[in-house]
């Protein structure tokens, strides 16, 4: 074994032992652990802010972008938001033990599917120190043990947040090893986690495209992730013009750097007001890259090339195309989409239903902004990420997404003939 394999194996053994305890803990005990963890975050405010200041100084010296520094920064209000989010998870309904369905066979056997924790979850993430708290809280509330590996740029912040939360968990009588942090910033530790099938049950990456691509390419452990957020909004010919304008501007410009931001706008060629729609976007500060028909509508647009339709900009840039109805919009999404979030704006119920049925996306929306693609907005509390795959969990992954199920069969002495 290499040094990093030994490290991950040690973390994994401790996590397995902790999982045996937290998976059987009562809902009340897990909730109390998270309330105490939130209290420790508040009590340790100055330690956490000092640690974050060190990360910020190092980040500036490394030349991190303003956007990266903003994601990294913690001040007193942000720390309070982190603590409040942990408290919010503590009051969410505990999924462990929920009966998904129940049937009784003709021979009297009663068969139930019951939610159980996934096990040991490895979470690999970048930049945002709040993920340390969110992931640890969601993992514990759902009865799992987590091994956290944050980005090197946030190592001091992550250590301070992790230590505070771990203290709260221990104070509640649960094992601190239920939430462990990889203390090294060496990238080889990530590689060891991705291959630790004996110790880790699932890996969840949360970060940029290069991180997620690496995890998906190298992992032998099952992965729950999304690679791109190439989200589309299709404005149908029967769209309400006021709704279309407000939705499109919000979907692109509210926050351009999140995975739910619109990256491509598709406009029906029979929609009566495409010009004002483009003007509203450009006036809001968005660069519009369009096809020939779009470029004729506003001289401030620029030509889109083939790669634009496959690009997650995460910036105030938008690709726009005119299409011949809902079917061509669906065809475009099928070729260029990433199965994340796609939207139709229309007052035609038949067109809306056709789009909803046919769009092969984790989240499909009608007459609203793709910026709602967020676990908190879905009423799920903190989210650990958005899954665009087909297996296990899809869309915002929160408590329920961190469980699986087992069958429980109850009899009264039946034997199989």
Write a concise keyword list for the protein shown above.
2 domains, four-stranded parallel β-sheet, alpha/beta, Aldehyde Dehydrogenase, Chain A, domain 1, 417 residues, Aldehyde Dehydrogenase, Chain A, domain 2
Characterization of the model:
The protein has helices at about 5-20, 25-45, 45-60, 65-70, 75-90, 130-140, 155-170, 185-195, 210-220, 240-255, 275-285, 290-295, 325-335, 350-360, and strands at about 100-105, 110-115, 120-125, 145-150, 180, 200-205, 230-235, 260-270, 285-290, 300-305, 315-325, 340-345, 365, 385, 395, 405-410. α12 (about 290-295) links the parallel β9 (about 285-290) and β10 (about 300-305). The chain folds into two domains: about 5-225 and about 390-410, Aldehyde Dehydrogenase, Chain A, domain 1, CATH 3.40.605.10; about 230-370, 3-Layer(aba) Sandwich (Aldehyde Dehydrogenase, Chain A, domain 2). About 40% of the residues lie in helices and about 20% in strands. The longest helix has 20 residues, at about 5-20. The mean pLDDT is about 95. The strands form four sheets. A seven-stranded parallel β-sheet has the order 10-9-11-8-7-12-13, with helices on both faces. Strands 5-4-3-6 form a four-stranded parallel β-sheet, with helices on both faces. The chain is an alpha/beta fold and about 425 residues long. It starts with a helix and ends in a 7-residue tail after the last strand.
Outline of the structure:
This protein is an alpha/beta fold. It has helices spanning 3-22, 27-43, 45-62, 66-72, 76-90, 130-141, 155-171, 187-194, 209-218, 241-253, 274-283, 292-295, 325-336, 349-358, and strands at 99-104, 110-117, 120-125, 145-149, 179-181, 202-206, 231-235, 262-268, 287-290, 302-303, 317-323, 341-345, 363-366, 385-387, 395-397, 403-410.
């Amino acid at each position: 074994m290499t040094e990093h394999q030994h490290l991950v194996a040690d973390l994994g053994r401790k996590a397995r032992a902790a999982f045996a305890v937290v998976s059987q803990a009562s809902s009340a005990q897990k909730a109390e652990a998270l309330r105490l963890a939130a209290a420790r975050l508040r009590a340790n405010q100055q330690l956490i802010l000092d640690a974050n200041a060190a990360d910020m100084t190092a980040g500036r010296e490394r030349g991190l972008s303003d956007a990266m520094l903003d994601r990294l920064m913690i001040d007193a209000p942000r720390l309070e938001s982190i603590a409040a989010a942990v408290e919010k998870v503590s009051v969410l309904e505990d999924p462990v033990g929920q009966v998904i369905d129940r049937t009784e066979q003709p021979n009297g056997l009663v068969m139930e599917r019951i939610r159980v924790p996934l096990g040991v979850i490895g979470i690999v993430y970048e930049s945002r120190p709040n993920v340390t708290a969110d992931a640890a809280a969601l993992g514990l509330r759902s009865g799992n043990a987590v091994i956290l590996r944050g980005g090197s740029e946030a190592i001091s912040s992550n250590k301070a947040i992790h230590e505070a939360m771990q203290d709260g968990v221990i104070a509640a009588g649960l094992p601190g090893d239920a939430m462990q942090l990889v203390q090294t910033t060496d990238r080889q530790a990530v590689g060891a986690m991705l291959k630790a099938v004996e110790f880790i049950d699932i890996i969840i990456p949360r970060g940029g495209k290069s991180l997620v691509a690496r995890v998906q390419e190298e992992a032998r452990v099952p992965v729950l992730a999304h690679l791109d957020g190439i989200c589309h909004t299709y404005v149908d010919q029967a769209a309400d013009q006021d709704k279309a304008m407000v939705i499109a501007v919000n979907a692109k410009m509210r926050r351009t750097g999140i995975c739910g931001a619109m990256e491509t706008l598709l406009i029906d060629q029979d929609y009566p007001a495409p010009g004002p729609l483009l003007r509203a976007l450009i006036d809001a500060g968005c660069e519009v890259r369009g096809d020939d028909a779009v470029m004729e509508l506003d001289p401030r647009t620029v030509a889109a090339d083939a790669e634009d339709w496959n690009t997650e900009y995460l910036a105030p840039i938008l690709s726009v195309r005119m299409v011949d109805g809902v079917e061509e919009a669906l065809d475009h999404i099928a070729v260029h989409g990433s199965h994340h979030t796609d939207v139709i704006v229309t007052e035609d119920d038949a067109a809306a239903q056709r789009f909803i049925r046919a769009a092969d996306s984790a989240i499909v929306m009608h007459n609203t902004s793709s910026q709602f693609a967020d676990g908190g907005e879905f009423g799920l509390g903190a989210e650990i990420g958005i899954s665009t795959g087909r297996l296990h969990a899809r869309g915002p992954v929160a408590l329920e997404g961190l469980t699986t199920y087992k069958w429980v069969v109850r009899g009264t002495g039946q034997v199989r003939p």
